[in-house]
Each structure stands twice: as structure tokens, then as C-alpha cells.
Specification:
The complex is a heterodimer. By secondary structure, chain A is an alpha+beta fold. Chain A is built from nine helices and 31 strands. Among the domains of chain A are: 91 residues, no CATH class; 47 residues, no CATH class. In chain A, helix 2 packs across helix 4. Chain B folds into two domains: 299 residues, Methylamine Dehydrogenase, Chain H (7 Propeller); 52 residues. Chain B has a five-stranded antiparallel sheet. In chain B, strands 2-29-28-27 form a four-stranded antiparallel sheet, with no helix packed on it. In chain B, strands 3-4-5-6 form a four-stranded antiparallel sheet, with no helix packed on it. Chain B is an alpha+beta fold. In chain B, helix 2 runs parallel beside helix 4. The chains are: A alpha+beta, B alpha+beta. At the A-B interface, strand 3 and helix 7 of A face strand 1, helix 1, helix 2 and helix 5 of B.
Chain lengths: 576, 448
């Protein structure tokens, strides 16, 4: 592969590997060794002179910055901007090109930094005669190391009812709540119990709040907030008869769906009720948040899935997903796909950006719960059995990836973040099941850190509070702030036009390439195109004629060469 | 079957002892970082609010003068030395770090019009109405703070009244302005050359720091005149609507200067094209008395008769910041120190004040992390600068009541004028009344 990079260029450029789509690790290492060898030969480390601050040591990897196109696409939030179409003014064009260069550099850096990620994701591959869904948890536990083996465990709690499960965002703390009132919070990795108590009432849902120091329990009448030691901190009387809870982490909003058909958003940092909305269909079967845009989706017994935002009193979107009741829905972490399970034994995959159904699977029996892991594994509970499907969004899948049979009906299902674990709450307690390849292997310590120390937790809490996104910014499109508000600009300019003493500005509101053309201009263009096409044809013909002529000439030459007259030719016999 | 389950060894992710730093593993994948724009916007809002919270520009004052401080002079090579001249002829040399007067000299019998320090900084010149005196920087002791009558190194007497003076950057020439513009050599008692254009006196004259033979002067016939000391005649002049009080050259652009005008505005001109100003800077509500450039050449500070100091960017028409105090009366001189960090202002109530050039800047040594945090905040503020909330917070300044009132009145008057112009335009044939650019409005003519 040629390296188009200039040697020692200060403008670092990341070159897309056009020949192959993936970066072959072996190739990469071979290449680096070559370069380092040559680098060493060239005496890479230069002596820094005293006081010479600006001289930088030569980077031996300077010419080897190849990153595959997919990776660059992953980190590229927006397509590369062409500053020529953005503005016609030289001064601003220069500025824009400089900014764009910097942006491309940072994209390249981020894509290349993937090399530094320490962990690789898990996998499960079956031998020839075996299928992956035939492999039991026992077999996995036997063939895996001790620490991973201990991650599969069973909590036998048969007296206090079917259990709800909630893992904290960093995948470290587990909260289980039994319907008869048993609530327990623990660190499931070290099996250290944080608190355990009985609320003496029915528990309908549980959820961790922004830090593992607080959690919310939806009890019979109201929602209560408890400390990690089990002390009751708040009783939220404004949330009456709640049976579904969720927490919007970046907005500090606790969302609850109550029996009387209301969804309410409560700001946990300030203790204020931000908004309430009355559902059209008062009964709901599931409530989940879309992690991409913090919109709450509710599934209803009439087959619809509604989407709610705290800024609107009515539902933002209403989709008819199934012909009969929807049992559960789940979103993937990037907010691109939604999976919905209906009573009609169907599992549908929706592209939630375009609201189109991508796949439709049919299950053995009526599904009850649904969850999507960080790496897009879908877990469905069908009666006693939990089935996991791998990579079922883009292309259809025939068989499940894994299957796990329990003794009792499943009451809750949740994948653990950053771990290859699925937590199943059922009538007799809680089971933790190993699903290789479900967890994201590399976490970002500044977002959710499984190894969070108390001092780090305090820092993160403060930073999260400072960066708390105001609830007014929740909308279907989360990146509205980054786009140009053309409407209000147009309005402003029109207002200014009415004021006569200001000279009307000559600003082009649309980028040059997107200019609309009038009918007559279009016609002229078409005419020109036709003319050009005719001319092109003629040129082609001319060229082909010329080529033929040339060929003929060459042939003639060959022939003439063959039939060149020689002095002694007259003595040859004449051939007819 | 082949199995691999995610198992992390906590040794890789947790620190060994409490004296180590915490291990922070990063993953920049966008799926782990939702709501990027919103969080960044919130951070930008926080940055702007903190910027306003920490905006405390006033640092200290140097008092000791017993009469109005008329002029200030920076030492070209020593950052902590400042020379100030008062209306009773007193000159004081200050140490800015200790904020103490190093030496006081009873220099002149009249108002000290101007003080200049040449590039080598071994002595300085001061001028009052008729004499130019040369003083040395040595021989000062901290004990005496009263003005002593130290004899000057040299005295030059002028035959005509002097209003201002400047010194050439690399040659031992002084130029004084008054009834006529005189070019002096440091040791000669007679001026080398005299320039005169008409019968008007020149109020202020400044040498170009880059093209060292050029100088610009403001005359009382409301014009700005350009001289070249290599020639015997003045070069050019541009006549404005009102008189210019003071002029400053841009230390980075060789041909750009800013003139502080009586009509509450500052005009930045390109010397090569005096037909139109490069930029008109409007924000003062009263006459602008003094102007000085920042050593970066991108901003300048102006002090005006309305008791405020404003900082403008060279390309912007409005001020970036405004400093005022109840105790500060009419400004007489402002300077921007050569390390781009402080402003020094001299005013009518005999006080010299030191201000921060960047009001919320943390002074002193900043650790690398601190500096990166500040840089990040600055970049965020620049990125989201056009959002209405951000603009509102960043623009918010408390300004004395009399200025608010004056600005309101001014706005009304200008609004009335423009409305009339608009009506004229509407009720006449379209195209007959053209638009006049703000940058050429105040220029009456250009003459050679």
C-alpha cells in the first residue's frame, strides 16, 4: 500500500484504507516493525538542544496511520463539509476549511484510538455437530475461568413473589424487588449485600437513580426513594399507584406510569415535577426509554406503541406495531432499532428513525419480556424459557443464539451493561445467566465505571449534576442544537426588510449546491444536456472512426510489410 | 465448543495504592456518549456563567499624585516600570509589582504633556508646554517618596507651544507637535525640521512602531495628518466630522492606526486608503480621550470622557468589555501593558488604576490541567457563541446609570434620524437616495 502522507507533515492526515475494509492485525504489526526498523536506522530520537522548545521528536509511526473506512464512519458524526458550497466568501471559507481539517484529524485520532482498547468481546462458537442454543449454562461454566463461572448464580427466594430486576448503569450493582415487598440491593460481582428489607407492601417496580446510593421503589400507593443502606429518604406522593418506573440518566428525570393513565416526569435533583401527560390508552403493558433521545415509549394492549416527551402533553409518535396487545418493547443503545413482542407470538424489529418494520419473527409461544443488550443481542422470555437472538436486526435469523430453561415463569429480564450476563427475575427469585458476547467489552470510565471508587463516584455525581440537560431539550431529534435554525433567520431577515433605513443584506440562506432552479432554467439545462450528448456522440464516432482508420493503417502496414517488394521476387512462383 | 466470556482483572482497572492516580480507561465510541450536543451546550452555558462570575477586573490602584494624572508611559523592556506625569509638573516612576512609587521628581512648572521612553530604556523624556527634559532611570532610592527637584540630564527649549511628543523607535529622534510639528534630535537644541499644514495646531503625534519613519498626528481642524520624517512635507490628511483626541498605531499591522474621536467613536484606518475607515467602533457615550493597542495587535483599549474604559477587538464594531468604578472620574490616559495582561488607566481624581485585560482570567501560574480546562471553556464559549441564551449571558454587563441613560437618548436620536431617512427613501423615486456606509459617513474629505 502506498502511503500518500508527506513525511514529517505537521498536518496529520488519516488515510482511509481503500483497498481493504478491515485492518488486518498481522499486516499492521508487520508494517510497524518495518517502519520502526527503518526509523531506528535513521536515528529517530533526536537530541533536544537546550532551550529549543519547538523541535519535536520524530514520530516513527508518522506514515502508518491507516484506519478502515467503517471505523471512520463510526466516529464521523456528520459528513465532510465542502466549504465551497457553504459560503461564497473567501474569508469564511478559509476558516471553515481549517475547522474541517481539525475535525477530520480528531475523527482520525478517535478511530485510531480503538487500537488501545484493552478488552475484546466474548463469543460462543459451537462445533460441527452442535448448535449454540444446545449449549447449557453448566457446560459454559465448566469451560470458563473461575471468576466468570461465579457470575452464573441463582438466588433462591421462593416466598416473596416474582422478582423485578434492575442493574445499575455501570453493571456493578443489582437491585431486586419481590412483589410481596422484599427489596435488596447488592454488588453482584463481589456478592456484597448493600441493603435488604421488606417494605410490608406490594412492590410494582424498582429502579436505580443516578448513583448507586439511591433507588426508587414503586410501592402500592406511592413511590418511595431509599438510600443504599435501606433508609427511606422520600415518599413521592405525587406519583400515585405507579406500576412502571424508569430513569433518564442525563436529565435526572424519574419517569413513572401510573394506574390512572398518567405519565409523570420528576426532576430528582430539584425534586420538582417537570411534566405530566395523560395517556390516550390508559392501560399500558410496558414502558421503556429510548437511550438515544430520552423519549419514553409505552406499549399498550391495543397494539400501539406511543412515544412521549415531557415538553408535549400529547404523544409525540404513535405506532401501530401489532394486531393485538404488545407485551414488551426494547430499544438498542444507539436508538436505531426497537424490538416489540406481541401476544400474537410475533417479534418485530423496527427501524425507529424511519418507523419501518425491518424484521418479523414468530416465536414458539406467547412472549412475556424483552431486552436488548449493549451489543444488540435480543433476549426474549417465552414462558419458562429465555431465548437470545444474535444479530437479528439487519438480516433475518432462523435459530436463537442461546436458550435457557428455568423452572418458573419469568417475571423480569435485564442484560447487565459491560458484562456478558443476563439477569432473570422469576417467581422463585433471581438467576444470573452467562451469555457470551452480550456486554460491551470496553467501558468509558468517565461515563459509567464499573470500578468506581467512592471518591470517583462523588466527582461523577457533581459533574453529572453540572451537565444535567434541561428537560426542554428532549425531542425526537436530540442534535437540534447543533444545526442551523433557518426558519428564525428567515423571519429575522424579513423583519429587517420591512425596516426601510437598513440596507437589505444579500445573504444566501441555502447552500449554493442546494439552490432551487426555476422551470425555464431547468429547461435550458436539459437542452444544453441534450446538445452536449449529441456532441459527445459525434466525438465518439469521430474517435472510433479515427481508431478504425489507425487500425486499418496498421493492418495495411503489416500487410505491406508482409508484401514488401524484394528484388528477387520476380523469381518466385506467382500464387493466385 | 469455543467460549470466551468477558472477564476483567480488576488489577488493570483499579489503582494499587492510595498514592497512585486512579486509572481511567477511555472509549470514545459514540454509542457510549449519547446527547453529545446537549451536554456540550450545557457545559458551554456553565462556562459562560462562570466567566461572568469570575469577572473581577479591578486589581489595584497607585495613588500618590497630588494633581490630575495627565499622561502615562510604559517602559519598553521592563514590564514592572511605569512612568506617570501629572498636571502640576510632577513625574513619578512606579514599580507595578509592589504598587509603590520608586521615584518622584518635581519635573516641570506646568502640565506634563507627554512622557516617552526610548527602546533602550536608559532614560526618558518628558515635555511640558515649552521644554523637553531628559531624565535618567538610575539613581533612584525607595526612601524618598516626595517629589525632589533632581536636575535633568538634558533640557531642550522650544520656541513654540508644545501639545504632545513621541520618540522614534530605533533612532534618537523626537517629534513634538503643537503650533507646528518639529523633529528634534536628542542632543541638538534646535529642531531639525518643521512641518506645517495650514494654521491649525496639532494635538497629538505618534510614531509608527513598524515603519519607523512615519508618524500620524491629530490636528485641531478635525483632521488626521500623516507625516514622513524622511520628507520635508506632510504626506496626506483626512478630515473627519469632529476632532480626534488621540491616535494609536497597531503594533502588528504596519499601516493600521486607530483614532479616538470626539464624536464618541473610534475609527480604525488603513493608512494607504483614507477614503473609508476600516472599522468604526461605537460604544462610548461621550468623547473618547485615549486609545492604546494590545501587544497582540488584535484588540485595543479606549478611555473616554464618560468615565469608562472599553476594550474593542480590531475587527468588531462593538466593545468586548467595559470597566468602570464609582470612584473613577474622567479618564485621561489608558495603556495596555506589554505582557497583554493588564490595563493601566489614569483619571481625573489623581489615581492610576490597574485592571485585568481579561476580566475572568486566573492570574499566576496555571497547571497544565487548569490551562487545558480554561482553553476548553473558551473554545466552548466560542463554539456556542451565537445561541441566544449564551449571547444574553455573555453580553450582560452592569453599566452606570448615566451611561444607560445617555445610550438610550443616543439610540432615540439615531433612530429618529434613520426613520426620517427611511421615510425620505420611501416617498421618493427608488434609487435616488442611496445608502451611505457607516465607515465613510464621518469622513469629509481626503487631501494631499
Amino acid at each position: 500500500m502506498e502511503s500518500p502522507a508527506k513525511k514529517g507533515s505537521k498536518n496529520l492526515r488519516y488515510f482511509v484504507d481503500k483497498s481493504s475494509d478491515g485492518l488486518d492485525v498481522k499486516e499492521f504489526f508487520n508494517k510497524t516493525t518495518d517502519v520502526t526498523n527503518s526509523g531506528l536506522k535513521k536515528n529517530v530520537v533526536k537530541e533536544w538542544k537546550d532551550g529549543d522548545h519547538r523541535r519535536q521528536p520524530v514520530d516513527p509511526f508518522a506514515n502508518n496511520r491507516f484506519v478502515s473506512k467503517d471505523k471512520i464512519k463510526k466516529y464521523e458524526r456528520k459528513k465532510k463539509m465542502n466549504s465551497y458550497s457553504a459560503t461564497k466568501y473567501q474569508k469564511f471559507r478559509k476558516r471553515l476549511t481549517n475547522e474541517e481539517k481539525k475535525r477530520q484529524n480528531s475523527i482520525g485520532f478517535a478511530a485510531r484510538s480503538e487500537l488501545l482498547l484493552p478488552e475484546m468481546s466474548g463469543y460462543l462458537e459451537a462445533e460441527d455437530n452442535e448448535q449454540t442454543y444446545q449449549i447449557t449454562q453448566q457446560e459454559i461454566v465448566e469451560s470458563v475461568d473461575i471468576t466468570s463461572a461465579t457470575k452464573h448464580f441463582d438466588l433462591n427466594l421462593d416466598q416473596l413473589g416474582p422478582y423485578y430486576v434492575n442493574y445499575f448503569r455501570n453493571g456493578r450493582k443489582l437491585l431486586i424487588g419481590g412483589q410481596r415487598g422484599h427489596v435488596a440491593a447488592m454488588d453482584w460481582v463481589t456478592k456484597e449485600l448493600m441493603c435488604e428489607f421488606n417494605v410490608q407492601e406490594s412492590v410494582h417496580d424498582i429502579h436505580w437513580l443516578h448513583m448507586p446510593t439511591m433507588f426508587a421503589v414503586a410501592q402500592r400507593d406511592w413511590v418511595y426513594i431509599y438510600d443504599s443502606k435501606g433508609t427511606q429518604i422520600h415518599c413521592l406522593k405525587k406519583m400515585y399507584r405507579v406500576y412502571k418506573l424508569d430513569f433518564l440518566h442525563y436529565h435526572f428525570l424519574l419517569v413513572s406510569a401510573s394506574d390512572n393513565g398518567h405519565i409523570s416526569w420528576l426532576d430528582v435533583s430539584m425534586g420538582k415535577m417537570v411534566s405530566t401527560a395523560k395517556m390516550k390508552v390508559p392501560r399500558l403493558t410496558a414502558m421503556k426509554q429510548n437511550p438515544y433521545n430520552a423519549i419514553i415509549a409505552t406499549a399498550h394492549p391495543n397494539g400501539t406503541v406511543d412515544m412521549w416527551s415531557p415538553n408535549q402533553k400529547e404523544r409525540v409518535v404513535s405506532m401501530l406495531c401489532h394486531g393485538s396487545a404488545v407485551r414488551d418493547i426494547a430499544f438498542d443503545c444507539e436508538g436505531q432499532y426497537m424490538v416489540s413482542a406481541g401476544i400474537d407470538r410475533s417479534l418485530k424489529v423496527w427501524d425507529i428513525r424511519n418507523y419501518k418494520c425491518l424484521q418479523s419473527y414468530s416465536l414458539r409461544s406467547m412472549p412475556s419480556h424483552l431486552d436488548v443488550s449493549q451489543r444488540n443481542l435480543v433476549g426474549v422470555s417465552v414462558g419458562n424459557v429465555v431465548e437470545i437472538y444474535n444479530d437479528c436486526f439487519r438480516q433475518p435469523v432462523d435459530t436463537p443464539y442461546m436458550r435457557h430453561r428455568l423452572n418458573h415463569a419469568v417475571s423480569d429480564l435485564e442484560f447487565c451493561n459491560f458484562e456478558d450476563i443476563l439477569g432473570i427475575g422469576h417467581k422463585n427469585g433471581f438467576t444470573s445467566v452467562i451469555i457470551p458476547g452480550s456486554g460491551e467489552p470496553n467501558f468509558d470510565a468517565l461515563e459509567a465505571n464499573p470500578y468506581m471508587t467512592p471518591s470517583q463516584r462523588k466527582e461523577m455525581e457533581v459533574k453529572a449534576l453540572l451537565e444535567k440537560i434541561p428537560s426542554e431539550l428532549i425531542s425526537l431529534e436530540p442534535n437540534i442544537l447543533g444545526s442551523v435554525d433557518r426558519q428564525s433567520l428567515v423571519k429575522q431577515m424579513e423583519d429587517k426588510k420591512s425596516v426601510n433605513y437598513v440596507k437589505p443584506k444579500d445573504i444566501e440562506l441555502q447552500s449554493i449546491s442546494k439552490k432551487k432552479r426555476t422551470k425555464s432554467a431547468k429547461k435550458a439545462k436539459v437542452k444544453k444536456g441534450l446538445k452536449n450528448a449529441i456532441i459527445r456522440e459525434e466525438i465518439k464516432q469521430n474517435v472510433s472512426q479515427k481508431v478504425h482508420k489507425k487500425k486499418d493503417k496498421q493492418n495495411k502496414q503489416k500487410n505491406t510489410k508482409a508484401t514488401q517488394k524484394h528484388v528477387l521476387d520476380r523469381f518466385k512462383p506467382k500464387s493466385n | 465448543m469455543k467460549v470466551k466470556v468477558l472477564s476483567r482483572s480488576h488489577f488493570q482497572y483499579m489503582r494499587e495504592t492510595k498514592h497512585d492516580i486512579h486509572k481511567v480507561e477511555r472509549n470514545y465510541s459514540p454509542s457510549l456518549h449519547p446527547f453529545e450536543t446537549n451536554r456540550e451546550y450545557k457545559r458551554a452555558l456553565n462556562a459562560v456563567k462562570m466567566d461572568r462570575m469570575f469577572a473581577k477586573p479591578f486589581m489595584g490602584s497607585l495613588d500618590g499624585h497630588s494633581d490630575v494624572v495627565q499622561t502615562l508611559a510604559k517602559h519598553p523592556t521592563r514590564l514592572s516600570t511605569l512612568v506617570s506625569g501629572a498636571a502640576n509638573g510632577e513625574i513619578k516612576v512606579w514599580n507595578l509589582c509592589d504598587r509603590k512609587c520608586v521615584k518622584a521628581i518635581a519635573a516641570h512648572n506646568g502640565i506634563v504633556r507627554n512622557i516617552c521612553v526610548p527602546l533602550h530604556g536608559q532614560y526618558f523624556f518628558s515635555v511640558d508646554d515649552q521644554t523637553i527634559k531628559q531624565w535618567s532611570f538610575d539613581g533612584f532610592d525607595d526612601t524618598t517618596t516626595d517629589a525632589t527637584a533632581v536636575p535633568p540630564m538634558n533640557t531642550l527649549i522650544s520656541k513654540t507651544v508644545i501639545h504632545g511628543m513621541d520618540i522614534q523607535r530605533n533612532k534618537p529622534f523626537l517629534i513634538t507637535c503643537g503650533e507646528k510639528v518639529d523633529l528634534w534630535e536628542e542632543s541638538r537644541t534646535q529642531p531639525l525640521r518643521s512641518y506645517r499644514w495650514g494654521a491649525d495646531s496639532v494635538n497629538c503625534i505618534k510614531f509608527n512602531p513598524i515603519e519607523t519613519d512615519l508618524c500620524v498626528g491629530a490636528a485641531s481642524d478635525r483632521s488626521i495628518q500623516i507625516y514622513d520624517t524622511r520628507k520635508s512635507d506632510p504626506l496626506r490628511k483626512v478630515v473627519l466630522k469632529m476632532r480626534t483626541n488621540n491616535i494609536a498605531w497597531n503594533p502588528m499591522e504596519a499601516f493600521v492606526f486607530t483614532a479616538a474621536n470626539e464624536d464618541n467613536d473610534l475609527y480604525t484606518f488603513d493608512m494607504r486608503n483614507l477614503k473609508a475607515a476600516l472599522q468604526v467602533h461605537k460604544d462610548h457615550v461621550s468623547a473618547v480621550i485615549d486609545v492604546d493597542y494590545s501587544p497582540t495587535g488584535k484588540e485595543f483599549v479606549s478611555g473616554s470622557y464618560d468615565k469608562t474604559i472599553r476594550i474593542f477587538g480590531v475587527e468588531s464594531g462593538r466593545s468586548r468589555d467595559v470597566y468602570h468604578t464609582k470612584r473613577m472620574q474622567r479618564l485621561t490616559a489608558v495603556r495596555w501593558t506589554s505582557d497583554n495582561k493588564y490595563l493601566i488607566s489614569a483619571s481625573d481624581e489623581m489615581d492610576i488604576r490597574i485592571w485585568k485585560a481579561f476580566a475572568s482570567e486566573k492570574l499566576g501560574h496555571k497547571s497544565f490541567r487548569e490551562q487545558s480546562a480554561f482553553d476548553y471553556q473558551q473554545k466552548l464559549m466560542d463554539k456556542y457563541a451565537n445561541h441566544p441564551e449564551m449571547k444574553r449571558i455573555a453580553r450582560h454587563r452592569h453599566v452606570p446609570k448615566h451611561i444607560v441613560q445617555s445610550a438610550k437618548e443616543k439610540r432615540l436620536m439615531i433612530g429618529a434620524e434613520k426613520r426620517k431617512e427611511a421615510n425620505r427613501r420611501v416617498h421618493s423615486k427608488p434609487g435616488t437616495i442611496g445608502y451611505e456606509s457607516e465607515r465613510t459617513k464621518s469622513i469629509i474629505s481626503e487631501e494631499k
